[in-house]
Design goal:
It holds the Pfam family Phage_integrase. It contains 15 helices and three strands. By secondary structure, the chain is mostly helical. It folds into two domains: 106 residues, DNA polymerase, domain 1; 160 residues, hpI Integrase, Chain A. A three-stranded antiparallel β-sheet has the order 1-2-3, with no helix packed on it. The chain starts with 9 loop residues before the first helix and ends in a 6-residue tail after the last helix.
Length: 337
Amino acid sequence: MTNDLEPLAPETARQMYLDERRHELADATLQSHDYRLEQFVQWCESEEINNLNDFSARDIHRFRVKRRNEDELATASMKGQLATLRVFLRFCVSVDAVQSGLDEKIILPTTTAADARDELLSKDRAQKILDHLERYRYARLEHALFEVLWHTGLRIGAATGIDVEDYDPDDQYLALVHRPNTGTSLKNGSKSERLVALNERVCRVLDDWLAVNHPRVVDDYGRTPLFATKRNRLSRNRGRTIAYQYTRPCIYENDCPHNRDIEECEARPTEYAHKCPSALSPHPVRRGSITHHLQSDTPERIVSDRMDVGIDVLERHYDQRSAREKLEQRRRYLPDE
């Protein structure tokens, strides 16, 4: 250990980093950094690394191998994990917690367009999940949330920021409003504000959720959230947990494609649902919804406006239609003569 360094615990460093960047990063980005660094801190605890002064390039390698092999991170996810770790270590260098230049030892994996969009919830799988929720959790929080996420392709942060008054049951739409001063913001600020149309099925579930099961709580700013627990507005972390929980195949099919004993599986408890290899976070749900809209002949411009995603990003990261599918869809718009 170098004498110039000052002892700093990983968890303390994580909190210092998040506090430092809280006013620089969008809420969704800060949330992602928080989640990724939580994985890093947990790994440090398991390896008994209590002081970052002792953290080395070999530890970076061991963490990378663990996340890639044991946690089975996809290339795109690994790139995000390591990119966050690199800027975190750069911060740690600035506060004399790790050796200068340690952040430069992190080499990010090269990703392709295929890597960026390799995980998505398919239409068939989404329907099985929705059928399960309608049968066993009808008009409860999980059901209402999943119906909206799949039908609209909303980001989880946008969904959790919706208030009851933002839902219009008569004209059947949700109003997306940027409210950074009262705890909820949209990824692209006021540019993300829009009205999102809903269908009859989603409105029926939302109406019954509000009439029967909604807890009628207000958040810390006196607002009534559309998606709420018994105590407060649904958090993004809890929303992610719901996605992980109900995308496990054993929940909606009572079968495990990984040949695990369902009752003994480590991912069986809700808090460990993310450990299921088939469990998906809300973003693959969004990606699947966008892909489904495109495959259903919804014009790209409509999908772009509805899902708040640029055409270039839509094509690069979300559009999983084959060249043949695109050809046949374009053909249907050609005149007969």
